[in-house]
Design a protein that fits this description.
This protein has 323 residues and is α/β, with parallel strands linked by helices. The chain contains eleven helices and ten strands. It has a six-stranded mixed β-sheet with strand order 1-2-10-7-8-9, with helices on both faces. A four-stranded parallel β-sheet has the order 5-4-3-6, with helices on both faces.
């Protein structure tokens, strides 16, 4: 049993689990990094900790200050978790179409929650722009700015990539995940490439996002739509600049849903849709690399954060999806 000094030391060092079904289907070893083990329940705890500590080091964040962020939910939960442990206040601006479970979690953590209508990034009322203005206008506050704050990807260069490499003793052929801010895929990709240029880094994009066409055709262009929360990007963020992406796949919501239902019923893991999309991408990457390959992906958060949405058959029916 491991002892830690404080709650912030619980962030990171998540375990890798072998995914039996995907491994059997591909003849490869497919591993999922269990990011729901973080104290805030998702991969975003890592970015939250690094962004807050970077702001402390450069003097922007002072004792008793406030952290403002625009988020689909998980980064906000991570920031509120870290902020509580460090004595800061939190204001979170979130689109009002995200899961009620995330909203309830943020309120339980004591965050001030500002809900805004979902809109295009070009709209000045987009959640990112609204949160930036609030960060500038609130006394004693900083705006975390996760999309273009490269402390986000630094968290994955320094921790996630190192953990994967160490756990597998360097025996890894490929890594894939979806991009929201781009911090995870860029940071893990950079960290793994530092150790071996032979590791293939693949983007797994949901429909409605523009990065798949960018990495396959050189043009930011989106097709379709997705109900997945926290992933899907229409621009090259600062975190994505220089990302060492070798391949790209596009995965539908239905494919991702089918994957998490199978993982739930056969392997006992209840996951969110982003994890299902990631696992589907991992199977494609494993097939591309060939039998016997070792591929890692991210299990971003638990399905218990989406009981009213993707794990609700009536909600799925309304969205034209099947349970």
């Amino acid at each position: 049993m491991t002892l830690v000094r404080n709650t912030l030391d619980l962030i990171g060092n998540t375990r890798l689990v072998r995914l039996a079904g995907p491994s059997a289907r591909t003849g490869c070893e497919i591993w999922g990094k269990c990011e729901y083990e973080n104290p805030g329940g998702s991969v975003k705890d890592r970015a939250a900790l690094f962004m807050i500590e970077a702001a402390e080091r450069d003097g922007r964040l002072q004792p008793g200050g406030t952290i403002v962020e625009g988020t689909a939910g998980n980064t906000g939960i991570g920031i509120a978790t870290v902020a509580n442990a460090k004595g800061y206040k939190t204001i979170i601006v979130m689109p009002d179409n995200q899961s009620p479970e995330k909203m309830a979690t943020l309120r339980a953590l004591g965050a001030e929650l500002v809900l805004v209508p979902p809109t295009k990034y070009a709209d000045p009322e987009h959640f990112q722009h609204r949160s930036r203005r609030m960060g500038e206008e609130t006394p004693g506050a900083i705006w975390a700015g996760q999309f273009d704050n490269v402390a986000n990807r630094q968290a994955h260069i320094e921790t996630t990539a190192q953990e994967i490499w160490t756990a597998l003793n360097g025996r890894i052929d490929g890594f894939t995940c979806a991009a929201g801010t781009g911090g995870t895929i860029s940071g893990v990709g950079m960290g793994l490439k530092e150790r071996s240029q032979d590791v293939t880094i693949a983007l797994t994009d949901p429909h409605g996002a523009a990065l798949y066409s960018y990495y396959t055709e050189g043009e930011l262009r989106s097709e379709g739509s997705s109900v997945a929360e926290g992933i899907g990007q229409g621009r090259i963020t600062a975190n994505l600049e220089g990302a060492p992406i070798d391949l790209a796949f596009r995965v539908s919501d239905q494919e991702g849903l089918d994957v998490i239902r199978q993982i739930n019923s056969e392997e006992g893991l209840c996951l969110g849709l982003s994890s299902g999309i990631n696992i589907a991408g991992a199977e494609r990457l494993a097939t591309e690399l060939g039998k016997g390959s070792t591929v890692v992906t991210m299990l971003c958060d638990s399905g218990f954060r989406y009981l009213s949405t993707i794990w609700n058959p009536e909600w799925l029916k309304e969205k034209g999806l099947t349970a």
